[in-house]
Design brief:
single chain, 478 residues, alpha+beta, Rossmann fold, eight-stranded mixed β-sheet, 11 helices, 19 strands, 28% helix, 26% strand, carboxylic ester hydrolase activity, Peptidase_S9_cat, AB_hydrolase_fold
């Protein structure tokens, strides 16, 4: 995943034993599913492919195997295989699920559902000769009304070489343009998150509508050099400006209408860039940070913890230790003694926590583990110190260009209300537009549970209404 602000608990599944998945299964070493008479059916749930390979026998199937590349599962043998009436039941391990399907009259499809953790997920498996590529409804498809080419450029001091893709509308001479700025976590130029090429879809839509788009590999990814993990949000802002200046040097681009689209932390980087440079003509913030870095991380962790399948007592414990440690980091972000002070605070919390849980039923406190050493390593690094002390109140008032700030109302990574209120409060009046979009998660998908583990199970890559609003905003910039 993604593309979210780095958190202390890293999405709770590492903490709660019930939410953990077992090690990746690569299949039985004693059995070979691929034989001359093997048959294959392939289906897809969201951005995850599932291939069922079976060896037939008279009147049915002899054995079956599952392959799901996006789940890192390869030739995993089914536990049981049988028919009940006209329904074929193929049962895998608990963490994978069980197929309940019926064969179509022509034998080319298996129609039914995958049952996992009491949840039914509709599934159609189609007869194939071998595993087919992942297909998503919004993946860009020909014919294209724009040109697309790989580009390369450097930052101001030539210390970083950037590789990206620039899409330019075929019709017209001078086009408005944007640079897409990614959020936390290394991303490639297509913005692949949870199996979805988010930035490629944005670029496709905007360039079909008259807007040039530059999307770039993050530092240390593919053709872009540099050490991502030692880079701060302010340095990411400088990277965004390098992209702006590259665009302004292209004859096809209207230099006076080049702006930034920043997702998540990228919204903060875009804001910093616009506050420091007149080259930025506008900003679109997608789930950007409108509150202090400290508050953003605290609210994010609370939302993730509170939506996790753990006991109320353990939720209380996680939220307490996060608050204690976050405050220590915030207060000592520039201090060389930060590590020592974090260790002291953590020991004190452990003592307090032991007294708190002593009289409680162990069922309320089982499966609790706080990854302190990992958090310590993260929190003492340059990125975390810098982000923790990010202050929109010192950045937003310096922005002198139009800003569109958007958030999904079901986003648990960047909470809509406090962040949008920050943009409204600090960006100069007359320059800010905000939109809290109903039903969208952090990746701008219409969601059901809206938890982070649902992202890859959804077929939608990016909400069409948000694409349309971004297009209208960019084309309206004078």
């Amino acid at each position: 995943m993604k593309k979210i602000l780095i958190t202390a608990v890293m999405a709770v599944c590492i903490i709660n034993g019930r939410a953990q998945q077992p090690p990746v299964k690569k299949g039985s070493k004693s059995s070979k599913p691929a034989t001359a008479d093997s048959i294959h059916w392939q289906g897809q749930i969201g951005a995850k492919r599932i291939l069922l390979t079976a060896v037939p026998k008279q009147g049915g199937l002899k054995a079956a195997w599952f392959t799901s590349p996006e789940n890192s599962i390869w030739q995993l043998k089914a536990d049981t295989l049988y028919k009940k009436g006209d329904t074929l039941i193929v049962q895998g391990p608990l963490y994978f699920g069980t197929f309940y399907v019926k064969r179509s009259a022509d034998g080319k499809e298996l129609n039914g559902y995958l049952l996992k953790d009491t949840v039914r997920k509709p599934l159609v498996l189609t007869s194939v000769s071998a595993m087919q590529p992942l297909v998503l409804p919004q993946t860009p498809k020909a014919p294209f009304t724009y040109t697309s080419g790989n580009v390369q450029y450097y930052n101001a001091d030539s210390s970083i070489h950037f590789g990206g893709t620039l899409t330019i509308p075929k019709e017209g001479a001078k086009h408005p343009a944007v640079v897409i700025v990614s959020g936390t976590g290394q991303q490639d130029r297509d913005g692949n998150m949870a199996g979805h090429p988010m930035f490629a879809v944005i670029a496709d839509y905007l360039s079909r509508n008259g807007i040039a788009v530059l999307r770039v590999d993050d530092r240390g990814v593919n053709e872009t050099t540099g050490n991502y993990f030692n880079t701060t949000t302010r340095e990411f802002a400088a990277d965004a400006l390098a992209g702006i200046r590259y665009l302004q040097g292209r004859k096809e681009i209207d230099a006076a209408k080049t702006g930034l689209i920043g997702h998540s932390e990228g919204g903060a980087a875009a804001s910093i860039a616009a506050s420091e440079s007149k080259d930025v003509a506008f900003i679109i913030s997608l789930s950007g940070v409108g509150i202090t870095g400290m508050k953003a991380l605290l609210l994010q962790n609370e939302a993730i913890v509170n939506s996790s399948p753990i006991t109320a007592v353990n939720k209380q414990r996680f939220n307490k230790v996060n608050k204690v440690l976050f405050e220590i980091v915030y207060e000592n972000a520039s201090d060389t003694a930060l590590e020592q002070r974090m260790r002291t605070a953590y020991r004190q919390w452990q003592a307090d926590d032991s007294a708190f849980i002593a009289p409680l039923d162990k069922k309320q406190t089982d499966h609790f583990f706080y990854p302190f050493e990992r958090y310590l390593s993260q929190a003492t690094g340059p990125w975390y110190r810098g982000f923790m002390t990010y202050e929109p109140s010192q950045v937003f008032p310096l922005i002198k260009v139009p800003v569109l700030a958007i958030n999904g109302d079901r986003d648990i990574i960047s909470l809509a209300t406090p962040n949008l209120e920050g943009f409204q409060r600090y960006v100069p009046a007359g320059l800010i537009q905000t939109w809290q979009v109903p039903g969208l998660n952090h990746l701008y998908q219409h969601c059901v549970t809206c938890a982070t583990n649902e992202y890859s199970e959804l077929s939608e890559t990016f909400a069409p209404e948000v694409l349309e609003r971004m297009k209208q905003f960019i084309l309206s910039v004078k």
